[in-house]
Amino acid sequence: MTQGMLRDDALKGRTIIITGGGTGLGKAMGTYFLQLGANLVITSRKLDVLQKTASEMETATGGKVLAVQCDVRNYDEVEAMLKQSLEKFGQVDALLNNAAGNFISPTERLSANAFSTIIDIVLKGSVNCSLALGKYWIDQQIKGTILNIVTTYAFTGSAYVVPSACAKGGVLAMTRSLAVEWGRHGIRTNAIAPGPFPTKGAWERLLPGDMAAKFDFKNRVPLKRVGEHQELANLAAFLVSDFSGYINGEVITIDGGEWLQGAGQFSALEMIPGEMWDAIEKMTRSAK
Ligand code: HXC
Ligand code: NAP
Fold this sequence. Notes:
Layout: E1 15-19, H1 24-35, E2 39-44, H2 47-61, E3 65-69, H3 75-89, E4 94-97, H4 112-140, E5 145-149, H5 153-156, H6 162-181, E6 188-194, H7 200-206, H8 211-214, H9 229-240, E7 251-254, H10 258-263, H11 277-286
Parallel strand pairs: 1-2, 1-4, 2-3, 4-5, 5-6, 6-7
The structure holds hexanoyl-coenzyme A and NADP nicotinamide-adenine-dinucleotide phosphate (NAP).
């Protein structure tokens, strides 16, 4: 599905901050938010990338985009980014914690700094942004909304991406915790757990070289395909809009069934050719 889902004015007048909004999935979600009438703040470490994306987005949608350099690991930079956003747009209504760092590695090969670098970007970065926005919203009595991008291995853990799994698990715990604590202020906190959605940033670090062909993610997904960026953008737009006004503390998986396929004890039986099932049925029926 490559079509937008919500009506054109669904996010009209809303200002949304997207961390990591200059590339990949952040860029895709941001472009759709603009099409729905939102103002956008995109933020990450590389100002040149952000500025190029901002100008592409403005040309494509006619919306307003502010590009702000901000390393989410540093709380002072996050506060400064929020201040700049308020100066430009007057109010901020939603935060999309999308920035991440990740790479595959056997855990014993990691330095302590490699491990904490991922934790700092993903967990501390999401905490820093949520904290700054939460303080502002509660002070100003604004019913803001937080949407966190996690992964399906936030539930299960995963070998070879252990720092990311620890960090995303922490972001999921934060999602559920804040949903309860800040619910009384009208602040909603939700998460999306995407399956495989090809992006340059993720594929270069998780499936480098010919690994992309050898470990083709399509084969792990019951629907036998990867996700379309617009499919994720549709879900994200719904979750930051008022149409999801009673959804709080939820994590929605969008993965074509991938993680459940990995969890089901007998799912690997899909390898059995259809013609073998007559013989197998005979054997199972003969069991007395
Ligand atoms: C082992 C590594 C490493 C690698 C870096 N390090 N890459 N160790 N294997 N491949 C170590 C370094 O040696 C250093 O430790 C420490 O990690 C910090 O590295 P820096 O390069 O100084 O960090 P920094 O410049 O902050 O860059 C962060 C980064 C980089 C995470 C390493 O890849 C990055 O900027 N990533 C951002 C984008 C990204 O990762 N996108 C993918 C998200 S995908 P020492 O000890 O030497 O100092 C995702 C999808 C999940 O999350 C699910 C998919 C299905
Ligand atoms: P991506 O393009 O590499 O996006 C990551 C973004 O994070 C980049 O724009 C990067 O920009 C920014 N970033 C990294 N470190 C930062 C920091 N310290 N401060 C601020 N920004 C920082 O990868 P993607 O695939 O679109 O991933 C987006 C999100 O989706 C991530 O949360 C990822 O975990 C999640 N996800 C992706 C998939 C998938 O299949 N693609 C699956 C599950 C979950 P700079 O380098 O300019 O800082």
